[in-house]
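Cross-posting from the modeling subforum.

Setting up a comparison between two proteins and wanted a second pair of eyes on the formatting. Protein 1 (sequence, then structure tokens):
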Amino acid sequence: MLSTIKPPICFNNSFVKLGEKFFAKLNPTPVEHPKIVKLNDELSNNLGIDLEMLELEDWASIFSGNQILPGSEPLAMVYAGHQFGHLVPQLGDGRAILLGEVIDNSSIRNDIQLKGSGITPFSRQGDGRAALGPVLREYIVSEAMHALGIPTTRSLCAVTSGEPVYRETVLPGAVLTRVASGHVRTGTFQYFAMRGDEKAITKLADYVIDRNYPEVKEKQNKYLKLLEKVMDRHAQLVTKWLNVGFIHGVMNTDNMALSGETIDYGPCAFMDSFNKTQVFSSIDHAGRYSYGNQPQIVQWNLARLAETLLPLIDKKEDSAVEMAKDIIESYSGRFKEFWLAGMRQKLGLFNSEPEDENLIESLLNIMHENEADFTLTFRRLCHAALGKKIDRNLRNLFKDEEAFNKWSNSWRSRLSRESASPEERVNLMRNVNPAVIPRNHRVEHALNAAVENSDYGPFEKLVDVLSSPYEEIKENDEFMLPPKPGEHVLQTFCGT
């Protein structure tokens, strides 16, 4: 008689069927003493994972890689990539292993991947492990991004390994369980393009279409349409980043997922004072991945993807180049369309007028010149939008109050030409201008407490506060505030 007992995780794997040139099969390297730090109940439920089936110790064993469940087919994916503009022919999952895939409650296919799970054939000189700090950072920021409504990988579980990892100092080790709607990257296509493997590129493109873009399957030129859809999704994604002051920090082509999700949270950060040239990553010396450069870098990365798809778009190279070029060149217009729409919402505008771009840019310019806090400025504009009076707390964000007053008069004049009520306007603004973000000093405080003192209280509190970013809750007022003098975080690090 067949067992009717449901397994702890119901794997339904597809990527493994592509064949072994796309990955290396291997199990995670066991750790000594796995212990759960954080388990995402809400995400577990959505993935159909019944946490009540097993004890916490068992889940710690599973999400550390010590125990391989039935149906799991562990593998490390291979890819290449441009890193800071320089092409590396082979990269791959050097410290990550895909356990398998599950179908969630919305019938969406999700990868379940371990990060920090040990050496793989693609580790190069790395140790295949992750330190506790970067694991908790990714948990905090990825879940915050999800709550903000930004497409992102998510964090299912954080587990300490009971083993040290060696970076500049000796640090406690950890493993993160990451969930994504796909881990295929621009760099995955580049890997096979560099080897002239058109058959593999076709197989990979068909896989991405089936999984993430089924609507293009029956189109006349489905590969050209795939490029267009990926472009559109990433133009929207980077717009959402800009709208909350997010800086990815390392937008290499191997960190650009075709699913259109934010992936690979390393030296990422959220701005405090607005600065178009802001960089936090300790390795981005030239500012390649600064806040203001992110839209152009997305276009550059898309062009690299387009290059790999040329043989599929048209057998005549010249014709393929022209068609792909048209798509890539349309990016700027699409991005501006999404960006203007997002910024109009942040300012409480329902309609479009030709001078809106000047109104937006002038605000950003005086914010830059006055070092005004990005998040607070827009959140306090929500309060100001209720009436004619400018909240003193808003005006105080600007050293040059007259410059702000001049802009405010233009803004109010623009609002007067809208039919929406003040209440409708404020409701719109409060749903796009967060009250709380993962401010760098708060993130660092939580990480330091966990790493240095095994105190997870600040981490738990921060995760909880960030789960409702658009709500103003009085007891969480301190999380809305920018850093005090001496609390500023000037650099962030990859953790590898």
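Protein 2 (same layout):
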Amino acid sequence: MHVISRKMRFFHSLTAKKSQKKFGNFSLTSTKQKFHFDADAITNKNTICAYKKKVLSLQANKKLMEFEHKIAVIGLGYVGLPLAIEYGKKYRVIGFDVNKARVEELERGEDHTLEADLKGMKQARQLYKNTKKIGLSFSSNADELKQVNTYIVTVPTPIDRFNNPDLTPLLKASETIGKTLNKGDIVIYESTVYPGCTEEDCVPVLEKFSGLKFNKDFFCGYSPERINPGDKVNTLTKIKKITSGSTPEVADIVDALYNSILENGTHKAPNMKVAEAAKAVENSQRDVNISFMNELALICDRVGIDTNDVIEAAGTKWNFLKYKPGLVGGHCISVDPYYLAHKAKSLGYEPQVILSGRRVNNSIAKFIADKTLKLMIQHDHKIKDANVLMLGVTFKENCPDCRNTKVVDIANELEEFGCKVDIYDPWASAEVVRHEYNKELIPDIDPQKQYAAIIVCVSHNQFQTFDFKKYKENGAVIFDVKGFVPRELVDARL
């Protein structure tokens, strides 16, 4: 009886009103917890410790959820800007970008990506002007980051010319954060990476430049971006997000932070590696599925049948997935598989399906160019100095995003044969295309100019009124990459 009494007194001490636990720079003062228990059930040390752990966990979770976020969003592109705007409506947010021109553009209330809710951005900025406690401001001055305690990294993660991951922007962002990092701060990465990248590549940089210890002095989270450029239906707040943290407590904080702005909630992954892998797998799966359809298109071309007819026929079966063939560009689908493959190869496994899918999709631009040239020869067109019109240069319809566009590859192939290529795109920035690809966009289509071939690369809404019939009657070969043009007017399509 004396033993039981001693243990009950010990357990009571765990629930005392002043019991505290330290978590970074958070001071956790508990409130008294009430539990119903049987004295006979706590006759050993392990059980007492279990009760203690449960009490402290409840206390910690409550206080951690009350953590007052002051947020910096690092990188104000297609992903970072919408995020900064939404958080800016509820929290104090600094939208940070090393590109001063980008910051100046946003301060004018403009956004060349067309992804921002300009009304929401104005609202969030006005909140800061009125209160100084919540709301959104923009900056390219890294010193201003010293006032925040939550960093969200949304910089690009491209590949180099050898298709290897280029972590330079990510590591530079981590270095910048490390120089301003304080005890108790949380760094959340959204940039697409391979599994383990946050802990193996980013954390050492944070530790080096901050002098702090991971999971003792500062913490990390990972929540992969799921922004779909140009999509005005599945916007940031409507997309279900994956969340994770470097400790269970931090995972709860990160999850609660994202849930505060999302309409459809979150999926909390068991750890950061799972969340990192999930993002890479999402886009790798799409890439492989599209590659199958692209390979089907290559086969159908040789057979002499229409790929879309085959897909429509096969699609009458209930479990057939009606993916379409096409050019695979953009920042995600054409890049993420290489990140997953890189990790696999570093562990001694050579991925077969993922890389074969990449090879097929990378071959489609050359196929389109070669097919167009063959059709021009069949129509007795001279190849050298032939005028070719390409409609669209962005990687998808009705958005200005030209990242990793494969349209340029078609143009390069045609130009190698001596064709004179005009590229027209009412959505794309001529300056961006010139800077990134060394290509000049034509500002408008000259109705008097004769074209030997027209390639419909992107199905922008503006092209619905294009007079394909007129050019067809004047002898132009029409290749429809997107299945966009009436069938009777095209010479070939994927």
